């Protein structure tokens, strides 16, 4: 995209709840409740991230609490069975932690979350030291961008470059993040290019086109 994309450091939370390896199970539950988070980084030393404990890591404790039948237990992965017996963060955590750097784009962070199937990522520096946490909700903040601001960027950086007058006559509307481009253009083969570029603009939810060949294209 043409504009400078937001990066993780723009939206991440820098005041972070974190625990050491020896943190007990109940403390983890209390911390998640108090901080209203679904996972906490596990650190050692001055803040080196060595793992993450999530609600999913802790749920086997309740899942297996009433000693289910052996047939059910055999269906569960051995790691989950072990976590059902764990009582400290070091035994519960998923390690190595899936992390992201502060200078990663929001799109890169979103892809990392999707691949790892996690809701939150510790943000670390080049040495693995904890700098913050970014959540799914943080990444969605980009869609709070004002429609007028989106329209101005699309008009300036994309429409003006791909469909300049007098060969093209294009009108642009943005409503609730949906960009609509209508009018006549000289080269309709540029529409897929325009669609890709518009979707790359932060805050854009979708893009729609109602375009017809311009005069010169029709006469060719």
Automatic annotation (TrEMBL):
UniProt cross-references to InterPro entries, sorted A to Z: BON_dom, CBS_dom, CBS_dom_sf, Diverse_CBS-Domain, UCP036990_CBS_BON
Highest taxon above the source species: Bacteria
Name of the molecule in the record: CBS domain-containing protein
Key words of the record: CBS domain
Pfam families the record matches: BON (PF04972), CBS (PF00571)
CDD domains in the cross-refs: CBS_pair_BON_assoc
Residue ranges of domain BON in the record: 146-215
Keyword Nucleotide-binding: no
Keyword presence, DNA damage: no
Native source organism of the sequence: Streptomyces graminearus
Residue ranges of every copy of the CBS domain listed in the record: 12-71, 93-149
